[in-house]
Design goal:
This protein is mostly helical and about 40 residues long. The protein contains 2 helices and no strands. The chain is about 50% helix and about 0% strand.
């Protein structure tokens, strides 16, 4: 998706604890997705 960033995943994940999604975010970044805004 154009404009997609790894941070967008945070906004759409069911996990309340951001620690649970962080490894997935890291994987997206390693895969070449822009990190986006972590806030």
């Amino acid at each position: 998706t154009p404009g997609y960033t790894a941070a967008d995943s945070r906004l759409h994940q069911p996990y309340e604890n951001p620690v649970h999604i962080q490894p997935f975010i890291d994987g997206l970044v390693l895969a070449g997705f822009p990190a986006g805004d972590p806030s």
